[in-house]
Amino acid sequence: MAEPSLARLSALFFGFLLLLATYSWVPRLHSGFLSGTGVQKTLGPDPKLRVDHSSAKPHHPLDPLTVQEIERVRTILLDHEPGFGSGSATIHSMALDEPDKTLVVKWKKGNRLPSRRAEVLALSVGQSHVIVVDLDSGRVVSDVVNPTSGYPILTMDDLIVASQVALKSIEFNRSVEARGVKLSDLVALPTFTGWFGPEEEGRRILKVQCFTSQDTPNYFMRPIEGLYATVDMDKLEVIKIVDKGMVPIPKAAGTEYRYNVQNKPVHMDRINPISIEQPEGPSFLVEDGHLVKWANWVFHVKADHRAGMIISQATVRDSETGEPRSVMYKGFPSELFVPYMDPGELWYYKSYLDAGEIGLGPAAMPLVPLNDCPRNAYYIDGVFASPDGKAIVQPNMICLFERYAGDVSWRHSEILIPNADIRESRPKVTLVARMATSVGNYDYTFDWEFQTDGLIRVTVAASGMLMVKGTPYENVDDLGDKEDDSGPLISENVIGVVHDHFITFHLDMDIDGPMNNSFVKVHLEKQRVQSGKSPRKSYLKVKKYVAKTEKDAQIKLSLYDPYEFHIVNPNRKSRLGNPAGYRIIPGGNAVSLLDHDDPPQIRGAFSNNQIWVTRYNRSEQFAGGVLVYQSHGDDTLQVWSDRDRSIENNDIVLWYTLGFHHIPCQEDYPVMPTVAASFELKPANFFESNPVIGVAPIFEKDLPVCRPFASS
Q: Do residues 496 and 488 touch, judged by C-beta distance below 8 A?
């Protein structure tokens, strides 16, 4: 693929390209790009660790499409209608069409790989296509047109074209210039429209709002409030301009966040550099680029266009027999839902479904060594397809590293036995798989953390910039009784609009195998003690309920009605007769408070509950549906679950939604400190006893010679 020329882009798009640089097909060719038939290599933090993607081959049934496979899919599609050869069709995403689960589970290393296929989401003449290409036979085996409402993931070309169309409008440009903004400083940012009815029906549209990058790269803090243009992406024309009058543009002062250009003093003592040293090297291995082996864990990890990072076939070794036992077949962030709480004409449509509308993979910039990931990290690239079907490498997109932060795995000191010096403690060392994605203004970091006791902790951390609103007010005292309904004042002329973040995870739990799993609700029920039976008046009793159907497993969490939620294999019993299982442990969470008939909530209906369990169906992967952009909400997790299929003793999928309400404050300006939410998957009668009871402690002789600095 030839290098894109910046000369063809007007200076009008300079600011916009600051945002678009998060995507892989803008000019970052030095980082890793396949150009024609040349050999392409990516450089990790260590120049000796080079990956030659041009000749890479798959080694595992779930390995992502390689550069050669992507190019082969492109070649096959050139001869396929509806118009890939003529250029009238564009590729919006391409990923491995994974083999049937039964084939993957049975596959052993050394066996021939199952047939390799690619799933392509494409658009041609306003029609959505879900295409499956068989790489072995070299032909298209399926092409389904408009299977549901909605359109495929947006591409970089869509975003650039929408901005170009808006900026060709004389009326739009006049509105910008009337506000005293130079076109050379203008950032024209397409925003996703959602679906609200007639205006969006039957055509693909984007709404373009504007910012100024004058004197700052942080244009998000300098919105040009009161103005946007609606662009018809099929006709490539502006169909509506809304200009609500001039609102003061927030000043650039105080918006800078780059370390090398800041001059603001930091009033704190310096923190000395810190690093984990491993004198014998890392304890994990990565085989064939994607298979990770560490301690008692083995799992497959890969980059994905839509989900960002996928963990598959996670197995943990039995502490008694050494047998590898299945825990999870597949886990990934299935969809994000970020609705903003301003119903006005300029903001009502801002309710984003990031995974399905833009994709978490292309928005993943290379991780920053020593800051995003520690010195001992191992990096994995992502390989995706551009809109014209050529292969693009997203370098250093995922990192793996061992973490030790002084935490304790288990401990006990015995004080009641005379003359006994019993002080046993074990350090907690974990393995983390991390991916970070910059979806416009927000940065999300996804961690999958594996512990030797069998626990998996999943954490989502949010940072980046707020999506803010311009206001004429500079101080809360100026507001009087006119306090802005959409959020608090966080800087002069800047409103931080209240919004939510919800992230729904697809967790295909396979406890000791893909079949014969059940969902058990373990209820703590208060019991009243009969008068005269005990000095106590009440106590809690455990009762277990096996969910029979999907509606039985639509769960809203409540502190005042406590449950544990287990996935168990009733056919695998411990020596005591308990079914082997895992439980999901929610962390701090929030629920969507929007009405269920509100259009954003209809599309984001997967946030109606915090826990769902559905019967496994390989077509039900993404909680917002296959085609999300401008979808009507007719292909969501809520729709699938309402079919109320049997889930007892079956192949089932656990879904968990974590979230938080965000009421912005001044500390979130100009870049917000990280806020995180998490959940855990923890063994419940899976092992016969504590699986790490025999792990050795660490002694001074095991470590390099380091001494604390002694001040005189």
A: yes
CATH 3.40.50.150 holds for 286-416+426-700? no
For the record, the structure tokens of 669 come out as: 């300006």
The CATH code for residues 156-243 is: 3.10.450.40
The SS3 call for residue 251 is: coil
CB atoms within 10 A of CB 583: 18
What length is written for the chain? Answer: 712
354, 447, 453, 635: the catalytic one is 354
Q: Is 539 a catalytic residue?
A: no
Angle, alpha carbons 133-138-142 (nearest 5°): 30
The pair of structure tokens assigned to 385 is 């397809």
CA–CA separation, 306 vs 362, rounded Å? 8
The stretch 325-354 carries a mean pLDDT of: 97
Which fold, 67-145? Nuclear Transport Factor 2; Chain: A, (3.10.450)
Whole-angstrom distance, CA of residue 697 vs CA of residue 127: 61
301, 400 contact by CB (below 8 A):
yes
DSSP 286-316: EETTTEEEETTEEEEEEEETTTEEEEEEEEE
Confidence tier at 88 by pLDDT (50, 70, 90): confident
Q: Kindly tell me if the per-residue pLDDT of 505 is higher than 80.
A: yes
Confidence (pLDDT) at 45 = 54
Q: What are phi and psi of 354, to 5 degrees?
A: -65, -40
How far is CA 490 from its chain centroid?
27
3-state helix, strand, coil split of the chain in percent (to 5) is 15, 40, 50
Count the neighbouring beta carbons within 10 Å of the beta carbon of residue 141. Answer: 12
Helices (H), 335-449: 354-357
Q: What percent of the chain lies above the pLDDT cut of 70?
A: 91
67-145 and 156-243 in the same fold: yes
Domain coordinates in residue numbering, the chain: 67-145, 156-243, 286-416+426-700
- Cα(152)–Cα(132) distance, integer angstroms: 15
Three-class DSSP labels, 426-454: EECCEEEEEEEEEECCEEEEEEEEEECCC
Range in 43-52, 143-152, 168-177, 554-563 with the lowest mean pLDDT: 43-52
Q: How do residues 261-304 score in pLDDT, each as one tens digit?
A: 988 888 999 999 888 888 888 999 999 999 999 999 999 999 99
Most confident of 33-47, 84-98, 633-647: 633-647
Nearest to 192 by CA among 26, 5, 56, 352: 352
**Mean pLDDT, the chain, whole residue set:** 91
Q: What b/e readout covers 1-11, taking b as 16+ CB neighbours within 10 angstroms?
A: beeeeeeebee
pLDDT of residue 15: 38
- Nearest Cα to Cα of residue 118 among 55, 66, 59: 66
DSSP type of residue 239: E
Residue 440 CB coordination number (10 Å): 20
Q: What angle do CA 223, 227, 233 make, to 5 degrees?
A: 105
Give Cα separations from 233 to 150, 158, 631 (angstroms): 14, 8, 16
**Which residue in the block uniquely carries the two structure tokens 């979130």?**
668
Cα(644)–Cα(551) distance, rounded to whole angstroms? Answer: 5
Q: Which of 362, 414, 449 is nearest to 679 (CA)?
A: 449
Active-site pick, 352, 442, 582, 629: 442
Indicate if 388 belongs to the active site.
no
Chain center to CA of 627: 17
Place of tokens 């590898």: 324
Range scoring the smallest mean pLDDT among 225-239, 250-264, 460-474, 626-640:
250-264
Q: What is the pTM of this model?
A: 0.93
How far are the Cα atoms of 42, 70, 126, 362 from residue 381, in angstroms, in the given order? 8, 15, 33, 11
